[in-house]
Amino acid sequence: MSLTSSPFPRRGLLAGMGAAGAALGLAACGSGSESGATPKSDESHKDFVMTVWGGEADKAAYQARIDLAKEKFPDYTITLQLIPSENYEQKVQTMISSKTGPDIMQVAENVNVYASKKQLVPIDDYLSQGGLDLESTFGPVGANYAWDGATYGVPDRSGAMVLYYNKDLFDEAGVDYPSADWDWDAFLDAAKKLTDPAKGQFGFGGVGWWPQWFSLVAQNGGNVLDPESGAPGVNSPEAVEALQFAYDLYFTHKVAPTSVDYSNMGPDMGADGAFQQGLVAMNATGFWGVGGNAAIEGLNWDIAPFFHGAQQAVSAFGSALVIPTAAKNPQGSFEIIQFLTSAEGQAPIADKGQDVPANLELQESDTFLDPEWLEADVDLQAFPDSADMIFTPKFIPEWNEMQKAIEDAMASFWLGESDAQATADDLQGRLERVIKPTK
Fold first, then answer.
1. Where are the alpha helices (DSSP H) in 110-179?
2. For the segment 141-155, what is each residue's pLDDT rounded down to a tens digit?
3. What pLDDT is stored for residue 211 in this prediction?
């Protein structure tokens, strides 16, 4: 995933979907049931449609899981509907508004765009009846998909951001490989030693993507969004200090390529491509880098947990399964979701190298840690080792508007044209204008 492209086709992040999110704002707020109320189920309805986004690899993994679910529930007909990423939100919004489905739906950070409009079924009663404990099954991400006191989603895919590193470049520089023990100082010291201007080589790919610098803010004790109310706090001293650390990586220490540096490397170049070409020694990104790097002949690499600041905190990339209010048999939808998010139901995610399964039991299994599809010797244990380090910003209903504000306010910062405090103050004002904190 480069800083100039969206990971959404491969993952759960919806940062690039502001336009589609704006379309959601046109929907009537009263199109669903009352928040917290579990609707009645028509148990005679046994035909279920499940919508997801992604490509052919995603389709294969989801279909394999649905085939397992059909074996579990032979009386149910379950149909997978894969929608192109760029059309996903608009398509499912139309389906929900017209009450034509789906019965199960994939969501990510935009979950509360729907939940705040009462377009999703609260599942707390179903969780209790089914004996599904989200925290013990999925760790910190179990609490991600909730709004206004009600739970709406069961985590399905969830992999922490990890640090990819080029072992050959580390060996040449005489630098020890990264570990979870690295703090900002240890990371920066290594990045400096791994930077060689004469070779056009940088120590690190950068932190210009919001999950990266959000992680730095959280590591420093700050919050871009208050975890309870969602109120912005990006100009707090802790957040500004983290932004200054990020700024210095580019413009003081010069261990990370600026956008100009990336342009000079080649067309459409970003951190992922530069890492694969040996132009950056470390790259912070998600699970999709495993398959991408494994395909590069001669690239000697591995992964480690992301470094920490005053405290450990790292973003995760994931998605959940929810029940739209258009579902005719939400009880049946939940039964399917509960199976799909079990270790058995998520096994094809690991078997096929699609992603990191959210289920912690499966993350710690050989199915994920020693998969047949991966020939490279990669320490996938970095993902379960990072599971309890994950922090998640509040998934606010104004998520898409927030992303637009971030893009506009941070543009000059990443060009070195605005300092940390001025940028934080500007972004704080923009966020205060679009976010309505909960009480």
1. 111-115, 124-130, 134-138, 167-173
2. 999 999 999 999 999
3. 96
Residue 30, exposed/middle/buried by CB under 10 A (0-12, 13-18, 19+)? exposed
**pTM for this entry:** 0.90
Going along the chain from its start, the domains and CATH numbers come out as 18-160+316-389 (3.40.190.10), 162-315+395-434 (3.40.190.10)
Residues of the chain with pLDDT under 50: 1-36
Tens digits of per-residue pLDDT, 391-437?
989 999 999 999 999 999 999 999 999 999 999 999 999 999 999 87
Output the pLDDT for position 252.
98
Other CB atoms within 10 A of residue 4 CB: 15
C-alpha–C-alpha distance, residues 417 and 354, integer Å:
39
Distance, CA of 100 to CA of 49 (rounded, Å): 10
| Torsions phi, psi for 179 (to 5 deg) | -150, 170
CA distances from 118 to 102, 112, 272, 334 (A): 15, 9, 39, 17
- Exposed e or buried b per residue across 182-201, where buried means at least 16 C-beta atoms within 10 angstroms of its C-beta: bebeebbebbebbbeeeeeb
Whether the CB-CB separation of 425 and 235 falls below 8 Å is answered with yes
For helices 399-414 and 420-434, give the axis angle rounded to 10 degrees: 160
- If residue 82 lies in a helix (H) or strand (E), which one and from where to where? strand 77-83
Whole-number Å distance between alpha carbons of 140 and 143:
6
User: Around 417, how many Cα atoms within 13 Å sit in the side-chain half-sphere?
Assistant: 6
C-alpha to C-alpha distance for 408 and 405, rounded to whole angstroms: 5
- Spatial CB neighbours of 381, under 8 Å, sequence gap ≥ 6: 369
Structure tokens at 55: 């490509």
